[in-house]
Design brief:
Elements (H helix, E strand, L loop, with lengths): L4 E7 L5 E7 L3 H7 L1 E3 L23 E5 L5 E3 L8 E9 L10 H16 L2 E12 L11 H6 L1 H13 L4 E6 L5 E6 L2 E2 L1 H20 L4 E2 L13 E8 L18 H21 L5 H4 L12 E3 L6 E3 L7 H7 L2 E3 L8 H18 L16 H6 L9 H10 L1 H6 L4 H14 L6 H11 L1
Helix pairs in contact: 2-9, 4-5, 6-9, 6-11, 11-13
Length: 435
């Protein structure tokens, strides 16, 4: 029988998977001893340029595959199987490499459980677009769904083979735009699913001679592709711990403090959640994304949205209740995004913050003074501004291993530098290719 290959992968700052192919027959030995990796690889941008690196040409680290993340997906007889495993990055002595963002995510989730007694359940709601065959005028329609039903069935089957539980596949509002949702998972598994889902979308499209893109925005006046992160909690006994109808905004004290922490520190860490030059063209009023650090009552322009409930019993409502973080897009690493959200939420719990009053109006009509009086601020209007906020935040620096934020900021400033001299059309096209 012919030898086959699989890929051992690490997820980087740009949200992409990189790694090395290994023979399938010897994978368990490789899983045990790991694979060599280069520290400066973390500074490879989404455009395959290399940002300033503190590591230079020196040093070695080790990719340590997590066998629980291995997937082996059959996409049909005409194409190779999609066989890969996700990895953490360790140092030579076996300790975690401080710049491994999957490990940073696991550490944040562990601290949330240890300090607050909460396990995070989350899921990533992805929007993406096909790159050919414009079909404007078919938003949410049966005709639009029918055109991509074959892709949808291949994609959903691939997700099931990868251990996910697909929920919906729909023709979205934008030209050639679709959305895929999967059921929530506990802890790191949710971020793993988000990483794998994006890769399987590309693999399924390739199989059918198509191309898809998760780019944050297709054109200056186009429809954005968001990645909405739904969040809820369970306590140490496995009971729902997000909903309390007797509390403000129907949130438990800990859940309310968690959301308040996200909103208080959002302007300081949004460069992690919305990390591309074009992300901030999407984060503007009236794009159904997010433009302010507000909690909204079923408002799809809020940074954090209280989602509606269909359950009729209090027990059912407790299980269903969740909030949705809306500024993220697919240029973000799911691991780094969850790590930042958990750290901000845990900071809110430590500070004993109260949940903000949900907004129910168009905030763009209010003055800056009126917004400030309610503790609401406009989100940064460029990646450069967001990076300045992140670099200046001692609080956010303290959430992560020393040096991690500096390396990330250098990575993103290098990404911006690679766009200098390009026209607006060229910049949008570059991100469409990258994602």
């Amino acid at each position: 029988m012919r030898e086959t290959l699989m890929m051992a992968c690490v997820a980087d700052f740009s949200g992409r998977l990189r790694g090395k192919g290994i023979p399938v027959s010897g994978r368990h030995e490789r899983f045990g001893k790991g694979l060599g990796w280069t520290p400066t690889n973390i500074q490879i941008t989404c455009f395959d340029t290399i940002s300033d690196s503190p590591f230079g040409s020196f040093g070695d680290v080790v990719m340590k595959p997590d066998a629980e993340t291995e997937i082996d997906v059959d996409l049909g007889d005409a194409v190779p199987r999609e066989h890969l495993v996700l990895s953490d990055i360790h140092q030579g002595d076996g300790t975690v490499w401080p710049f491994c963002i999957r490990s940073a995510c696991k550490a944040a989730l562990a601290d949330l459980e240890a300090e607050a007694g909460l396990t995070l359940f989350s899921t990533f709601e992805h929007e993406f677009m096909f790159k050919s065959e414009a079909d404007a005028g078919f938003a949410y329609s049966l005709r639009g769904f029918r055109k991509r039903k074959a892709f949808g069935e291949l994609f959903v089957d691939a997700l099931v083979q990868a251990g996910m539980k697909p929920d919906t596949f729909l023709r979205e509002y934008g030209d050639r735009q679709f959305e895929i949702t999967v059921d929530p998972e506990a802890g790191i598994r949710s971020a793993d699913q988000a990483v794998l889902l994006r890769e399987l979308a590309h693999a399924c499209a390739d199989t059918m001679g198509e191309e898809v893109t998760f780019t944050p925005l297709s054109a200056p006046d186009g429809i954005g592709n968001g990645v909405h992160i739904h969040l809820s909690f369970r306590d140490r006994e496995g009971r729902p711990a997000t909903y309390d109808p007797a509390m403000p905004a129907n949130m438990t004290a800990k859940a309310g403090a968690f959301v308040a922490g996200i909103l208080k520190y959002l302007n300081e860490f949004v460069a992690i959640a919305a990390p591309s030059a074009i992300s901030y063209r999407r984060l503007t009023p009236h794009r159904w994304s997010a433009a302010y650090n507000n909690l909204g009552d079923r408002d799809r322009e809020a940074a954090v949205r209280i989602c509606s409930l269909s359950a009729q019993t209090e027990e059912g409502k407790a299980k269903q209740f969740n909030v949705e973080f809306r500024p993220t897009d697919a240029a973000a690493s799911p691991y780094f995004a969850i790590a930042a959200l958990v750290r901000a939420g845990l900071q809110g719990i430590r500070e004993g913050l109260s949940v903000p009053e949900p907004t129910r109006e168009d905030l763009s009509l209010l003055s800056a003074e009126a917004l400030a009086g309610r503790g609401i601020a406009r989100l940064p209007e460029s990646l450069g501004e967001a990076l300045d906020n992140l670099a200046a935040s001692e609080t956010v620096r303290g959430w992560f291993p020393p040096g991690l934020i500096d390396v990330y900021v250098a990575h993103k400033r290098g990404e911006l530098a690679s766009l200098e001299g390009k026209t607006e059309d060229e910049i949008f096209a570059a991100y469409a290719r990258a994602y």
